[in-house]
């Protein structure tokens, strides 16, 4: 990885040691990359202290240009790969738990066999975070639920039915489908933004005043809380496929499906490696089967 990309990873993580661990480099190698960049620029770019690192005033002013240099360096590598016929590079993907566990993980071995010289970095977040990462260039592409931002190009990937999550020993577990009105009668545990976007809109459309008492960002935390009778929830079917929690999934009445797409910025061209990964996922997308 070039010194410009290393510098950007340090800024992203706020620490030389964290960047070294993430990149699987020694801290000395990361420090040398920063020193080389500062020597090249003829100025100090980072403030270093026991709390981590931060940009100096000069570093802040040069940051956009360093980002451009990192992009140009990647484009140079892409062109070299194009000329040699060898697809290499690091591809950063914004994703969320259900896609990672139910779809990406089973495809990883095939992807690695098809493109052995491509490395993948998965960043996990909610829909809004992933959209922001794509537009900021933090990731090459990501998975989002439709509708999404107009500045993003999308490719349909998979549909995921949203299900009520209730304790396995609850009377609600015997329902063949759960009326939305039941969410007014029981404590509700919601995910932050992500699924919350579609679920709350469904509640609003049907004039349901859900008794939301907990909000968390983790699907598995929700399942554990439901198992312990802290409330009921709504999660995508994919995330519930492999779980040992004592919970029961019940279809919603009326039903709700989230439409998950691959998304990338309209303003930035995908690298060769990122485009190859997108095309691979497109060919293997459940929506294309």
From TrEMBL:
Record-linked PROSITE patterns: HTH_LYSR
Keyword Magnesium: no
Gene Ontology CC terms, in alphabetical order: cytosol
Keywords assigned by UniProt, alphabetized: DNA-binding, Transcription, Transcription regulation
Entry GO MF terms: DNA binding; DNA-binding transcription factor activity
InterPro entries the UniProt entry points to: HTH-type_LysR_regulators (IPR050950), LysR_HTH_N (IPR000847), LysR_subst-bd (IPR005119), WH-like_DNA-bd_sf (IPR036388), WH_DNA-bd_sf (IPR036390)
Boundaries of every HTH lysR-type domain copy: 1-56
Keyword Transcription regulation among record annotations: yes
PANTHER family listed in its UniProt record: HTH-TYPE TRANSCRIPTIONAL REGULATOR BSDA, HTH-TYPE TRANSCRIPTIONAL REGULATOR YBHD
Family to which the UniProt record says this protein belongs: Belongs to the LysR transcriptional regulatory family.
Record protein name field: LysR family transcriptional regulator
Source organism per UniProt: Paucilactobacillus vaccinostercus DSM 20634
């Amino acid at each position: 990885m070039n010194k410009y990309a290393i510098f950007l990873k340090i800024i992203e993580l706020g620490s030389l040691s964290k960047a070294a661990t993430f990149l699987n480099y020694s801290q000395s190698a990361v420090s040398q990359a920063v020193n080389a960049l500062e020597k090249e620029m003829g100025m100090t770019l980072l403030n270093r202290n026991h709390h981590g690192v931060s940009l100096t005033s000069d570093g802040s002013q040069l940051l956009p240009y360093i980002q451009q240099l990192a992009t140009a360096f990647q484009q140079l590598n892409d062109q070299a790969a194009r000329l040699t016929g060898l697809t290499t590079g690091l591809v950063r993907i914004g994703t969320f738990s259900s896609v990672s566990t139910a779809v990406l993980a089973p495809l990883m071995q095939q992807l690695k066999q098809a493109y052995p010289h491509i490395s993948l970095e998965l960043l996990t977040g909610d829909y809004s975070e992933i959209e922001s990462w794509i537009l900021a260039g933090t990731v090459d592409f990501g998975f989002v639920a439709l509708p999404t931002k107009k500045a993003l190009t999308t490719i349909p990937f998979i549909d995921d039915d949203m299900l009520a999550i209730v304790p396995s020993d609850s009377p609600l577990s015997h329902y063949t489908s759960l009326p939305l009105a039941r969410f007014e009668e029981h404590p509700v545990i919601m995910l932050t933004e992500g699924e919350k976007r579609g679920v709350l809109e469904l509640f609003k459309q049907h004039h349901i005043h859900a008794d939301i008492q907990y909000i968390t960002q983790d699907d598995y935390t929700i399942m554990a809380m439901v198992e312990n009778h802290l409330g009921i929830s709504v999660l995508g079917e994919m995330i519930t496929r492999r779980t040992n929690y004592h919970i029961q999934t019940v279809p919603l009445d009326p039903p709700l499906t989230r439409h998950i797409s691959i998304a990338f910025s309209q303003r930035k061209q995908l690298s060769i490696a990122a485009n190859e990964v997108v095309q691979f996922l497109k060919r293997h997308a459940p929506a294309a089967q």
